TrEMBL record, chain A:
Name this protein carries in UniProt: Clp R domain-containing protein
Keywords: Repeat, Transcription, Transcription regulation
Compositionally biased residues, Polar residues: 551-570
Family from the record: Belongs to the ClpA/ClpB family.
Domain of life (superkingdom): Eukaryota
Keyword Repeat in annotation: yes
Keyword Repeat on entry: yes
Originating organism: Hibiscus sabdariffa
Region annotation Disordered: where it falls in the sequence: 531-570
Automatic annotation (TrEMBL), chain B:
InterPro entries the UniProt entry points to: AB_hydrolase_1 (IPR000073), AB_hydrolase_fold (IPR029058)
All copies of domain AB hydrolase-1, residue ranges: 21-258
Designated name of the protein: AB hydrolase-1 domain-containing protein
Family, as annotated: Belongs to the AB hydrolase superfamily.
Annotated Pfam families: Abhydrolase_6
Organism (species): Hibiscus sabdariffa (roselle)
Length: 1116, 266
C-alpha cells in the first residue's frame, strides 16, 4: 500500500524532503505508478551538489576513471528505471513501500545514533516554532538527508545498480558516515592498506615523488609514458630522456604536446614552467641541405632563453631534437653531425641544470651507431635511455567495458555485492517475468556470436539507446542475477563435465556450439561434485568422481555373488599356471587400487576411485574380482607363493610348452593349477608361507636356467642376478615379508642393453609368471625421441610419449606401477633421469613407496626394481678398454634401422681381387657413414628416424609437428659453438647427478655388471653362415658383398631376437631364396658381384618370423 | 608497505638453495601454472612466485586502469617485489607477457638478473613490414570484440587453441585461470600487450637470455624466436621444445623442466 508523498515528507528534514520531491518528479516524468528508491537515487545523483555523488567519488578504490564510472552508474540507474512498468500519468506518484521502509529504517538508525540526539531536539523544536504540521508530527523524528541516503543504499535494488557500475555500496556508506576531512584515513581504514604498487620504495621518502605517484588518477589523461619521461627528467643525472622503441616517436610527441599545453599535473613544481623548443625541423634541414644558419639561430634563441632563466632561477628549456634517425643520412653519420653534437654538449655543460634534451629513436641499434661515433654522448648529453613499449594514442577507447562484469559477478569474492550472494540453486527459481524471454534471446545471441562471430546484439531492441558497453548489462539485469550467476558457474561446471568425457575433443566441439544452460538442471550430481571439488588444480581422477559415484554403486551389488563364483573358479580353474598368475596379478592390482583409493579418500565425502583400478576391473570382468579378504594378505607372501608356483611350473615344463599352453590340457598343467590354487587358498586364508623354503637352491637353479636360456652370453650377470633374486626371495620368506630398504633393487651396469632387458623380462616371467609383469621405462627417452624406425622399436612405455604429454615421468612410472603391482620394474638409463624421477627414486628406495608428482604413493615392496645404467664403473672398466677398436659398437647397433634390403648385381670390380676365401665380405659402401663418429650419427639418425616415422606412420599419432625439424636444423647448425658448450654443460650437469647416482647406487641391494655383447663374434658367425648359404645356392665363384649398414642391421636383429635359430632361418629362407632368384635372373658368373645393400628410407613392410629382418629382399 | 605489495600479489618464496629464481606467469594464468615445474627446482633454488596484478587470483581492486596502461608498471611491481624481498641477483623465468616484463626489467636493472629465460616470448604480436608477429591488426580487433561480446565463449574457444596440445587437463586448468580474470581486466591487459612493441629496446638487454619456444604456438610464430635471438643484446640461445602450444609448463612440464635446468646451469 503506497504512502502518499505528503505523508512521507513529514518524516524528512527539509533537505531530505527536497530530495524526495525530486524523486517524485522523476517518477512523474517517467509516468511511473510509484516513487521508488531508484527514483530517489536518480534524483540524488542529479542534484547539483549531491552528497551521494560526493560520497561516491571519495572511496573510489576500483581502477575505473571516475567520469566513466559515474556515467555507468547513471546509465544503469536509467536502465533500471526504464524497466519499471509505466502507467497513466499520476500527479504525484505515491511513495512505494520499499522507499517508505527505507525512510523508516533511516529514522530508526538516526534514533540509535547518539550524536544525532542533539540535532533531533533541534529539529523538533524547529518544528514547534514553525508549527507547520499537526501536533502529532511534532514527535516525529525528522530524517536527515545523510541517513535517508544511507538507508536507500541498503535497498537491494539500489545496491545492485551501484554494483553494476562498479561501486560498492558499503564503501559509499562509509564515505557518507565519515566527514570528508578524514578522506585519507578512510582510505586506509578500509579493510587493509592499499598496496604500494606505485611507490618506488627508495623514493617514497621524498614526499614529492610519493605524492605524485600516490594519486596518479587525478591526472586524468596523463599516460604512463609521460609519467616515466617526467620521472627521468626529475633525476639529478642522466636526466635527458632518449626514448627508445618503435612507439618512441609517438610517445615523445604526446609528451611534448602535453608539455606545451601545460596540462595540469604533468610536471611537478620543480619542473613547471618549462618551455619546449623543437629543433627537429632545423636538424632536418641541416642534415639534408647542410644549412646550419637556421640551426645556429635556433640554438642562439635557446641560449638566450636559458640565460634569462638563469638569472631568475626559474623555468627551463626542453630541447626537443626529435628522432635521432634524422641525423643519419643514407645510413651514415656525416661528419657534420659532430658540430651539432658538440654544440648541444656545450649547452648541456653550461646550462645543464635547466636544460633537458629529449629525443626518440626507433631502436637501440641506431643509437649504438651514435654512441660508437660519439662514445661520450651519453655523458655529454646527460642521456637516459628510456624504453618505450607502447603509445598512448592507440589506447583511447580501450577503457573497461562494464558489460563484461556480468561473468565475474558469480565469483562472488572478486566483486562482492552482498545482495548477489544467493545460492545458485535457489536463485534460479526467482526469475523476473522477462527472464525466460531474455534467456532465449541471450541464448540466441550466444549462438549467433559463436557461429558467425558477429557481435550484433539481439538485446539491441531493448536498449537501442544505450552504448554498447551497457547493452549486455541491460540484458543481464532483466534476466536477473541468477541467470548470470549460474551461467558462470556452469562454465566451471562445463569444464568439469568435459573432464568426465573420455573424448575431450568431440565434446569440446559440441559444447562450443550448444549453450550450456541445460547442463546444470539435468545434471545435479555433477553440480554437487563441483562443490566438493577444490578449486585448485584438479586431476583427472578427481574429475571422474562423478562417474565413479555411479559406477561405484553399480559395481558393488554385483560383487558378492561373483565373489563366491570366483572362489570356486579359482579352485577348479582349468587354465595355465601363467594365466592364472596374471589374472591374480590383475586382481591384486585392482585390490591395491581399492585400498589406495580408500587411503586417499579418507575424509572426502565422496569416493574417488583411481581410473586405473576401474579400467582394470572392467577389463578383468566381474569373475576376476577378489574378495576383500585378500586385502589383508602380506604382500610379501603372495609374492613368494605366486612365484613359486610359476617357478615350479617352469622347472617342470619346457618353455615352449608354457608358451603354447593355453587351451591344451596336460598332466603337468593339472598339477600346476593345483599348486597355484592351493597357494591361493593358503594366502587367502591369511596363513604365512609355510612351504617353499626348501626350494632355495632349486630357486637359484631354476631362475638361472631361465635366464641363461634367454641371455646365453651374459654368464656372470646371469649368475649374480639369479643369486641375488634367490637370496632376496629367501629373505622374504624368512622375514615374513618384512624387508629392509632397497633390498629388492638391483642395478645393472655396463653395456648390452638388449641383454639387460632380456634378463629383466625373463625375471618377470620367472618371478611373476609372465613377461607382461614387466614395467619398462627408458628414462633417457625423453631426451631423444624414441627411434621407432630402428630395429629396437620401443613398444613399451616410452618415457616421453605423445600420449603422455602433460605428465611427468614419475607420473608415468607410478601409473604403470599401479597397474602392475607385482612386477619387475625395469628403469633404463637411470643416469639420465631428470630431477623429478631422481627424487621419486630416492624416496622409493628409502621408504618402499614410489611417489608420483602429486604425492600419491605406490608400494613397491613386492616388486623387483632393476635400474640400469650404461655408465661404466670401476668394476668392468677394463672390459671396455681392451676392445677399443671394435668395428661394431653397441651404439651403432642400437642405431640400426629397419630398412628394406635389396640385392644388386654387378661385375667384379678392381678391388674385388682381394676377396677372401669365403667369398663373402663386409664392406663399407659409404665411406662417409662409417667415418662419422657414433655420436654424430646418433644425432642425425634420431632426427631422420623421427621424421620418417612421422611420414610413414600416419595412422599413428601425428602430433609431433614436422616443422620442428625445420626449425631445429638451422638453429643447430648456427649454434655449433653453442651446442658444444651445451655439451660441456650437460657434462657438468651430469657431474651433479653423478653424486646422486653414487649415493643412490650405494643403497641398492645388488650391483650386477654386464659384459659387452660380442658383436664381432656374432658377425663372424653370420658371415660364415651366409657364405655357406651363398656357396650352396649360387656356387663358389660368386662374390657376395654385404654393406656394413646391412651387417649392422642383421647384427641388431640377431641380438634382439629371442627366438633361437631365427637368424639361421632367415639366412636360409629369405636370403637363400633371394640369392637363388638373383642367380636365375642374372645368370651369375664367377665374375659377378652380388651386393646386399639397404634401401635407405624404405622401411621394412613385412617382417620375417621371429626376427626383425625383412621377409623379402628386393632384387634389382 | 612492502608487506602489502607482497600480500596483494600473493608473493611466495619457496625452496632452499642459495640462488634465487623468479617464476613469472603469463597472461591468463596465475602462479599455480608453475606447480608442476616447482617441485623440480625447490631443492636447488629459492623460488619466488608472484601473481601479475591482472591475474584472477589478485583482488581486482588493485588493478588500476589508469596505471597499467603499459608494461612498465608491471615491471615496477616486479622490481619492487624483488627489492622488498632483498633479492640482489636472481634468474628469471617469464612466460608470455612476463617474458616481456622480464626483458624490460632487465633493461632497467641489469645487475639484478643473472639470466632471463623467456618462454613463448614475443616482442611484438602484430605483423609489420619486415616482421612476422603472427597477428594482423584486424584479427586482433576481432578477438577483442569477441572477448567483449561473450567472454566465456571466448575463453572456451581460446583455451584449447592456446594450449595447443591435446592435454585436457591443461586446457581445463588454463580455462580456469583465464576465466578467473575479470573480463574487463583481461581485455585491458590484452590490449596493453598487443599495443606493446619491444622490438626497439631488445638491444638494451645485456643479460644472457634463453628463449624457449615450442614447435608450434598459436601466439608466437617460430620466426619470433629467431628474431629475439638476433636482436637481444645479451648472449642468447634458443631452445625449441618438441611439443605444441603456448603453455609448455602445463602441457609438457617434464620436458620444459629439463630445458630450464639446462638453461639455468649455463
Amino acid at each position: 500500500m503506497p504512502t502518499s508523498v505528503t505523508a512521507a515528507r513529514q518524516f524528512l528534514t527539509e533537505e531530505a524532503a527536497r530530495a524526495l520531491d525530486e524523486a517524485v518528479a522523476v517518477a512523474r516524468r517517467r509516468s511511473h505508478a510509484q516513487t521508488t528508491s531508484l527514483h530517489a537515487v536518480s534524483a540524488l545523483l542529479s542534484l547539483p551538489s549531491s552528497t551521494l555523488r560526493d560520497a561516491c567519488t571519495r572511496p573510489r578504490s576500483s581502477g575505473y576513471p571516475s567520469r566513466l564510472q559515474f556515467r555507468a552508474l547513471e546509465l544503469s540507474v536509467g536502465v533500471s528505471l526504464d524497466r519499471l512498468p509505466s502507467s497513466k500519468s499520476v500527479e504525484d506518484p505515491p511513495i512505494s513501500n520499499s522507499l517508505m521502509a527505507a525512510i523508516k529504517r533511516s529514522q530508526a538508525s538516526q534514533r540509535r545514533h547518539p550524536e544525532s540526539y542533539h540535532l533531533q531536539q533541534l529539529h523538533s523544536s524547529n518544528n514547534n516554532t514553525n508549527a507547520t504540521g499537526c501536533s502529532q508530527t511534532q514527535s516525529i523524528l525528522k530524517v536527515e538527508l545523510k541517513y535517508f541516503i544511507l538507508s536507500i543504499l541498503d535497498d537491494p535494488i539500489v545496491s545492485r545498480v551501484f554494483g553494476e557500475a562498479g561501486f560498492r555500496s558499503c564503501d559509499i556508506k562509509l564515505a557518507l558516515v565519515r566527514p570528508p576531512v578524514t578522506q585519507v584515513s578512510s582510505r586506509f581504514s578500509r579493510a587493509h592498506c592499499p598496496p604500494i604498487f606505485l611507490c618506488n620504495l627508495t623514493d617514497s621518502a621524498s614526499g614529492r615523488v610519493g605524492y605524485n605517484l600516490m594519486f596518479p588518477r587525478q591526472e586524468d589523461g596523463v599516460d604512463e609514458n609521460c609519467k616515466r619521461i617526467r620521472e627521468v627528467m626529475a633525476k639529478k643525472t642522466g636526466k635527458s630522456p632518449l626514448l627508445v622503441g618503435v612507439c618512441a616517436m609517438e610517445a615523445l610527441r604526446a609528451f611534448t604536446e602535453s608539455l606545451a599545453k601545460g596540462k595540469y599535473g604533468i610536471l611537478d613544481d620543480d619542473l613547471s614552467g618549462l618551455i619546449v623548443i623543437s629543433i627537429e625541423k632545423e636538424i632536418n634541414e641541416f642534415v639534408i641541405e647542410r644549412n646550419d644558419e637556421k640551426m645556429g639561430l635556433k640554438l642562439k634563441e635557446v641560449e638566450a632563453v636559458l640565460e634569462k632563466g638563469n638569472g631568475s632561477g626559474e623555468g627551463g628549456v626542453v630541447l626537443h631534437f626529435g628522432d635521432l634517425k634524422g641525423l643519419i643520412l643514407d645510413g651514415v653519420l656525416g661528419d657534420f653531425v659532430t658540430s651539432l653534437v658538440l654544440k648541444l654538449a656545450g649547452l648541456m655543460e653550461v646550462y645543464g641544470r635547466r636544460l633537458w634534451l629529449v629525443g626518440a629513436v626507433d631502436s637501440v641499434e641506431i643509437y649504438r651507431k651514435f654512441s660508437d661515433k660519439f662514445p661520450s654522448i651519453e655523458k655529454d648529453w646527460d642521456l637516459h635511455l628510456l624504453p618505450i613499449t607502447s603509445s598512448k594514442s592507440s589506447f583511447d577507447g580501450a577503457y573497461p567495458k562494464s558489460s563484461l562484469m556480468r561473468s565475474f559477478v558469480p565469483f562472488g569474492g572478486l566483486f562482492p555485492t552482498p545482495s548477489d550472494l544467493r545460492s545458485p540453486l535457489s536463485g534460479r527459481n526467482q526469475s523476473i517475468p522477462r527472464c525466460n524471454l531474455c534467456n532465449e534471446k541471450y541464448e540466441q545471441e550466444v549462438d549467433a556470436v559463436m557461429k558467425s562471430g558477429s557481435t550484433v546484439s539481439v538485446a539491441d531492441q531493448y536498449s537501442e539507446n544505450l552504448p554498447s558497453w551497457l547493452r549486455m548489462a541491460a540484458v543481464d539485469t532483466s534476466k536477473g542475477e541468477d541467470a548470470a550467476k549460474t551461467n558462470a558457474g556452469e562454465s566451471m561446471l562445463s569444464a568439469k563435465v568435459l573432464g568426465l568425457q573420455k573424448k575431450w575433443n568431440d565434446i569440446c566441439q559440441r559444447l562450443h556450439c550448444t549453450p550450456t544452460f541445460p547442463k546444470l538442471d539435468t545434471n545435479p550430481s555433477v553440480s554437487h561434485v563441483s562443490i566438493v571439488e577444490d578449486p585448485q588444480f584438479s586431476t583427472d581422477k578427481k574429475q571422474r568422481s562423478g562417474d565413479d559415484l555411479s559406477i561405484n554403486e553399480s559395481l558393488f551389488p554385483n560383487q558378492s555373488p561373483s565373489r563366491q563364483v570366483h572362489m570356486q573358479q579359482n579352485f577348479l580353474q582349468k587354465s595355465t599356471a601363467s594365466t592364472s598368475c596374471t589374472s591374480k596379478g590383475r586382481n591384486m592390482n585392482f585390490l591395491s587400487g581399492l585400498s589406495l583409493a580408500q587411503q586417499t579418500d579418507k575424509g572426502v565425502p565422496c569416493f574417488h576411485y583411481p581410473q586405473q583400478s576401474l579400467s582394470s576391473s572392467s577389463g578383468c570382468t566381474p569373475s576376476s574380482f577378489v574378495p576383500p579378504v585378500t586385502t589383508d594378505l602380506k604382500l610379501g607372501t603372495i609374492y613368494a607363493s605366486t612365484s613359486q608356483g610359476s617357478i615350479t611350473a617352469k622347472s617342470l615344463n619346457h618353455k615352449e610348452n608354457l608358451q603354447h599352453f593355453s587351451g591344451s590340457v596336460s598332466a603337468d598343467f593339472d598339477a600346476n593349477s593345483e599348486t597355484t590354487s592351493y597357494q591361493f587358498a593358503q594366502s587367502s586364508a591369511c596363513s604365512g608361507p609355510t612351504s617353499g623354503q626348501q626350494f632355495d637352491l632349486g630357486d637359484y637353479k631354476s631362475i638361472r636356467k631361465v635366464l641363461a636360456e634367454k641371455v646365453g652370453w651374459q654368464d656372470d650377470a646371469v649368475n649374480s642376478v639369479s643369486q641375488a633374486v634367490s637370496q632376496l626371495r629367501h629373505r622374504y620368506q624368512s622375514s615374513y615379508g618384512m624387508n629392509c630398504k632397497g633390498d629388492n633393487w638391483l642395478t645393472f651396469f655396463g653395456p648390452d642393453r638388449v641383454g639387460k632387458k632380456r634378463i629383466a623380462s625373463a625375471l618377470a616371467e620367472a618371478l611373476f609368471g609372465s613377461q607382461e609383469c614387466l614395467v619398462s621405462v627408458d628414462l633417457s627417452s625423453q631426451v631423444k625421441v624414441g627411434q621407432s624406425n630402428s630395429i629396437f622399436e620401443c613398444e613399451e612405455l616410452n618415457g616421453y610419449d605423445v600420449i603422455s604429454r602433460g605428465k611427468t615421468v614419475s607420473d608415468l612410472i607410478a601409473e604403470e606401477l599401479r597397474k602392475k603391482p607385482h612386477s619387475v620394474v625395469f628403469l633404463e638409463n637411470v643416469d639420465k633421469a631428470d630431477y623429478g624421477v631422481q627424487h621419486s627414486l630416492d624416496l622409493a628406495i628409502g621408504t618402499g613407496k614410489f611417489p608420483d608428482s602429486l604425492g600419491r604413493e605406490i608400494s613397491i615392496n613386492n616388486m623387483v626394481i632393476i635400474i640400469t645404467t650404461s655408465a661404466i664403473t670401476k668394476g668392468n672398466i677394463n672390459v671396455i678398454r681392451e676392445k677399443k677398436d671394435i668395428k661394431f659398437r653397441e651404439e651403432r647397433i642400437l642405431g640400426a634401422k629397419n630398412w628394406q634390403m635389396q640385392i644388386l648385381v654387378g661385375s667384379v670390380s678392381d678391388d674385388a681381387c682381394k676377396r677372401n676365401d669365403t667369398g663373402v665380405w663386409v664392406t663399407a659402401m659409404k665411406e662417409a657413414s662409417t667415418s662419422i663418429s657414433a655420436n654424430k650419427r646418433k644425432l642425425i639418425e634420431t632426427a631422420e628416424s623421427s621424421e620418417l616415422e612421422k611420414a610413414e606412420a600416419q595412422e599413428r599419432e601425428h602430433k609431433l609437428p614436422r616443422s620442428c625439424l625445420d626449425l631445429n636444423f638451422p638453429v643447430e647448425e648456427e649454434d655449433e659453438g653453442d651446442t658444444r658448450s651445451g655439451q660441456s654443460k650437460s657434462e657438468s650437469l651430469s657431474e651433479s647427478s653423478e653424486c646422486w647416482l653414487a649415493e643412490f647406487f650405494s643403497q641398492v641391494y645388488k650391483k650386477i655388471h654386464f659384459n659387452p655383447f660380442d658383436f664381432e663374434g656374432l658377425a663372424d658367425k653370420i658371415v660364415k653362415e651366409i657364405s655357406a648359404q651363398c656357396q650352396r645356392i649360387v656356387g663358389t665363384g660368386v662374390v657376395l658383398e654385404i654393406d656394413e649398414e646391412v651387417m649392422v642391421q642383421i647384427l641388431a636383429a640377431a641380438w634382439f631376437s629371442d627366438k633361437k635359430g631365427a637368424l639361421e632361418d632367415w639366412v636360409s629362407k629369405v636370403l637363400g631364396r633371394s640369392l637363388a632368384e638373383a642367380g636365375s635372373k642374372y645368370k651369375l658368373s664367377p665374375e659377378s658381384v652380388v651386393k646386399l645393400v639397404a634401401c635407405e628410407g624404405v622401411v621394412v613392410k613385412e617382417q620375417a618370423p621371429g626376427i626383425r629382418l625383412p621377409a623379402e629382399i628386393n632384387l634389382k | 608497505m612492502g608487506y602489502n605489495l607482497l600480500e596483494a600479489l600473493n608473493v611466495r618464496v619457496v625452496g632452499s638453495g642459495d640462488r634465487h629464481l623468479v617464476l613469472a606467469h603469463g597472461f591468463g594464468t596465475d602462479q599455480s601454472v608453475w606447480q608442476r615445474i616447482l617441485p623440480l627446482f625447490t631443492p636447488s633454488f629459492r623460488i619466488i612466485l608472484y601473481d601479475l596484478v591482472c591475474a584472477g587470483s589478485v583482488n581486482p581492486d588493485h588493478f588500476d586502469f589508469t596505471r597499467y596502461t603499459t608494461l612498465d608498471p608491471y615491471v615496477d611491481d616486479l622490481l619492487n617485489i624483488l627489492q622488498a624481498l632483498g633479492v640482489e641477483r636472481c634468474a628469471y623465468v617469464g612466460h608470455s607477457v612476463s617474458a616481456m616484463i622480464g626483458i624490460l626489467a632487465s633493461i632497467r636493472r641489469p645487475q639484478l638478473f643473472s639470466k632471463l629465460i623467456l618462454i613463448g616470448a614475443s616482442p611484438r604480436f602484430l605483423n609489420d613490414e619486415d616482421y612476422h608477429g603472427g597477428f594482423e591488426e584486424g584479427e586482433i580487433e576481432k578477438v577483442f570484440s569477441a572477448m567483449e561480446a561473450n567472454y566465456e565463449a571466448w575463453v572456451n574457444g581460446f583455451a584449447p587453441l592456446a594450449v595447443g596440445a591435446d592435454v585436457p587437463a591443461a586446457v581445463r586448468e588454463f580455462s580456469r585461470t583465464l576465466f578467473n580474470m575479470r573480463p574487463d581486466i583481461s581485455l585491458f591487459v590484452s590490449r596493453t600487450v598487443f599495443n606493446s612493441d619491444l622490438r626497439g629496446v631488445l638491444g638494451l638487454v645485456r643479460v644472457p637470455c634463453c628463449v624457449i619456444q615450442t614447435a608450434r604456438d598459436v601466439s608466437v610464430p617460430a620466426s619470433v624466436a629467431e628474431y629475439l635471438r638476433t636482436h637481444l643484446g645479451g648472449r642468447t640461445t634458443v631452445e625449441i621444445l618438441r611439443t605444441e602450444g603456448h603453455l609448455p609448463h602445463l602441457t609438457a612440464p617434464a620436458l620444459l623442466a629439463q630445458v630450464l635446468r639446462r638453461a639455468l646451469a649455463r
